[in-house]
Amino acid sequence: MTQLVVLPMAFLGGSFFPLDGAPGWMRTLSHVFPLGYLNEGMLNVMGRGLGAGSAVPQLVTLLGIAAVGAVVAARMFRWDDS
Q1: In this structure, are residues 42 and 55 in contact, taking their beta carbons and an 8 Å threshold?
Q2: Diameter of the chain by CA atoms?
Q3: Which residues neighbour 48 within 8 Å (Cβ) at sequence distance 6 or greater?
Q4: pLDDT under 50 in the chain at which residues?
Q5: Nearest-CA neighbor of 39 among 23, 50, 31, 7?
Q6: Helical H runs in the chain?
Q7: What is the DSSP string of 6-28?
Q8: Smallest Cα–Cα separation from 16: which of 39, 45, 42?
Q9: Gap between the Cα atoms of 52 and 71, Å rounded
Q10: Do residues 22 and 36 make contact, with C-beta atoms less than 8 angstroms apart?
Q11: Which of these, 4, 14, 58, 73, could form a disulfide with 39 (CB 3.0-4.6 Å)?
């Protein structure tokens, strides 16, 4: 089940090939997946040599996604007393 989520996310997020030459719809769809932001931040620092500060927008986005996920999880999860 996990592979049904992770593998498409890796392909569409730019893990296996750069999205610079990808069709526009694929680049747009890559912004839906958190892995795309991680890949972009790592590529800026390690591949493009732009320095650690260039990854700040991607890190802020990832922290926002994590915060939203934590709020949703906290609202949905309930301890069962029985």
Answers
A1: yes
A2: 55
A3: 54
A4: none
A5: 31
A6: 2-13, 24-30, 34-42, 56-76
A7: HHHHHHHHTSSS-STTS-HHHHH
A8: 39
A9: 28
A10: no
A11: 14
